[in-house]
Request: fold
Amino acid sequence: MRLSSSSFLPRFSTLISGPRFLNVHPRLASTSSAEQPTPTPTPAPAPAPAPAREQAEEQGHPKPKRPYSQLQRNVFALYRKAYRLIRTKPEDTQYHFLLYLRHAFKHPSQGGAVGRRDFSAIEHLLRRGERMVEQVFGDVGVRDVHLPGYVIEEVQREQARRASEKEEEAQGKPKR
Reply:
C-alpha cells in the first residue's frame, strides 16, 4: 500500500504530519507556517453513558440510588431487630406489637418527620428507640400492647385507602 494514495492520505494525514489536535480553528490552520501559533487542544467530549444504563433508562427503570448512610442503616437494623422480637410474642398479640412498632417509626411525634440531615435528632431517636425495643419488645414479661384509639383508626384508614387504590388499579383508573 502506498502512502501517497488519495484514499489513504486524507484519513491519516494527522498521524503522518505530527501531533493530533481534536479541534483546530480553521483560521489557525490557514496561516503561514512561519507565524503559525501552536493550536490549543479543546477538551474531548464527555464519554457517553454505558449502554446498559441507557437501555435501563429507555425501559423506564429509575436511576440507581445512593448507598444508605450509616445512620439510615442503624435505623433499619433497629426496625429489623424489633420486627424479629415481635415473633417471640404470643401469636394473638403480634398484630398489636406490629402496629405499635409502625406507629413508633412513622408517627411525626415519634420521629417520622425528622429531616435527613438532622443528625442530632436522629441519634437521639435511635437511642430512645433502642430503649423502647429493649423495654417493650425484648422483655419476655410483656405479653400485649394496648394502643390508643386514634392509632387503630389511622391503621384502618390506611388499610381502606390501600384497598380502594387496589380496586381502582384493577379497574384501570389512574391514581389520584
